[in-house]
Amino acid sequence: MTIWNKGDKVGDFIIDAFIKSNYAYEESYLVRNDKDEKFLLKAFDMSATPANRLKDNEPIEISVYKDIKCQSLPTFLTHGHCNVKDKIISYYLRAFVGGETVADKLADGKVYKWEEAIPIIKCVLEALNCMLESLPPVVHNDINPNNIIVSTDQEGREHYYLIGMGHLANYSTGVASFEIRDLNPWYRAPETYKGMYDSQSDVFSVGVLLFKLLSGLVPWDNGSIDTEKHDLAMRKEFVKNARKVALDYGIVGELTENEVEILKKAIALDYDKRFRNSRTFLNTIEGKIELKKESETPGKMEENIFTTLTQQQEEDSTSFIRIEKHVGGGFADVAGMEEIKQIFYKNILFILKNKEKVEKYKLKVPNGALLYGPPGCGKTYIAEKFAQESGLNFMMVKASDLGSIYIHGSQGKISELFIEAEKKAPTVLCFDEFEAMVPDRSKVINEGHSGEVNEFLSQLNNCSQRGIFVIGTSNRPEKIDPAVLRTGRIDKLIYIPLPDEEAREQLFNFYLKDRWCDESINCKELSQISEGCISSDITFVTDQVALNAAMDDLPITQQMLKEEVNKARRSVTKDQLKEYESIRKRIENNDALNGNNRIGFATYSKK
């Protein structure tokens, strides 16, 4: 059953046609505005969307796609929420790209020459580069001819666009955060069958695509797989056996020796011999990097990719470390939250900045702090502004920065990070989404994860004596290993609540600045009626009103903003707030037993 019918109105857009539904929880539509301009709208039933496809209370596809700017992707325009048939629907709007898919052209018997195929490959690699540069990096996971649109302009020139964002995800090892049953098994890299999805697995898929364009055939595909009959385990076995046979590169047409070597490197089954990422692949195609010929062992599935570390990878293992001073306005850039700022000043900054008084009064130098609370309340932002305020060297560390495909590889990265931080002391290390790095070991099955937690515990022990101050941010602090939050590791727990009235007023001021507004704007009134809104909610309200005003060529008014605030969905519900208050009480009770300082928005209890 579709969410909308033809003629239904969604905001300022009219539903023209239902396009497709890949899963029960999402649907795509063709829509138009009052100027008859076409757009694609994708909608998600939030009650049915799997939890692993959500990030900060919105679909991953939206949270990731909205921040990627790339000419090789259809332009992301806006996103929002609405209630339909008592269901909360999250949706986004992107530019509509007309044309046919590369799969359509191949089905018509089109076989490409190298110079014809490369513009398509470059388009895909440029899109992947934009994803690679996201923080944290993003993987497409579903590169195939069906997800590339060929659009022809009025002058007959072809333009290519990568689509199919339903499998977007950050790097992952283990269980994928997306559906894998609908992935084409022959386009999947060997390591994905072991649960690893990263930039190199996308590179492999692009290599398979190039082979298909040049030959009309998918490498190793022997027709043995029936996706209707064979489950994932059987598909994996069929693919593994098929890839034991050496490929005949003579079927890909007349290629130069260098072109053949590029193709071989792109679809190398050996992870270590493949292009390291889309950027390297693209630079090689463009002649910016000279390709060195390497031999490929036919059918090698790289059984030891989790245990072998090459010299080049050892050199790259510390490349993610960027510890330096961050210039900015510090806490002056934080809207409201005055009591939180004072907690930082009194209990952390004063001690870090006054070595003489620390010695004179024998003050305990804080080891670390955990900023926790509902999503979207500025925990990461406050950590960054704290670093600017302190004037200390700083690095924001994401879980993907420490990820490794090798057993115990992440432990090495953790050690290297703290060694480098000590060299550049005094240093602030901020670990974003800390619960993903130090999960409760009693609930972890993977032995490697337990080893990484143990490494963290070792490094956190009195790290202040090495000139390192650690900040962790978390939406789910109850998932953090209790040993991490003990005295001598993370000394202070700071609850970051929803933005207060003063903060909301400053946020409205900030997001409306330099926009065409009439004289009726009263941000104080807006802050009073927007209780429960987080920063992203206020961003959405102002962006949506600005879009509506732009389409009518009118200035933004107070009435427009009030109407949008009143109908806007709060990202953090009342039930979620109750849950966080319960988590806070549990953490503070446990914290008292551990002897730590616990710091709330309105109270501070000393040891």
Q: How many domains comprise the coordinates?
A: 4
Would you tell me which CATH topology of the largest domain applies? Transferase(Phosphotransferase), domain 1
* Percent of sequence in beta strands: 15-25%
Oligomer: single chain
**Spatial gap, N to C terminus:** 59 Å
Q: Name the CATH class of the largest domain.
A: Mainly Alpha
Q: Radius of gyration, rounded? A: 26 Å
Strands side by side in the biggest sheet: 16-18-19-20-17-21-22-23
Q: Count of helical segments? A: 19
The largest β sheet comes out as:
8 strands, mixed
**Structural shape:** globular
> Helicity, in percent?
25-40%
Secondary structure topology:
Layout: E1 9-10, E2 13-23, E3 26-32, E4 38-45, E5 54-55, E6 58-59, H1 60-65, E7 76-84, E8 87-95, E9 100-101, H2 102-107, H3 114-132, E10 138-139, E11 148-152, E12 158-162, E13 169-170, E14 172-173, E15 196-197, H4 199-215, H5 232-242, H6 257-266, H7 278-285, H8 311-316, E16 324-325, H9 338-353, H10 355-361, E17 368-372, H11 379-390, E18 393-397, H12 399-402, H13 409-423, E19 427-431, H14 447-460, E20 468-474, E21 492-495, H15 501-512, H16 523-529, H17 535-552, H18 558-567, H19 574-594, E22 597-599, E23 604-605
Parallel strand pairs: 17-20, 17-21, 18-19, 19-20, 21-22
Antiparallel strand pairs: 1-2, 2-3, 3-4, 4-8, 5-6, 7-8, 9-11, 10-13, 11-12, 14-15, 16-18, 22-23
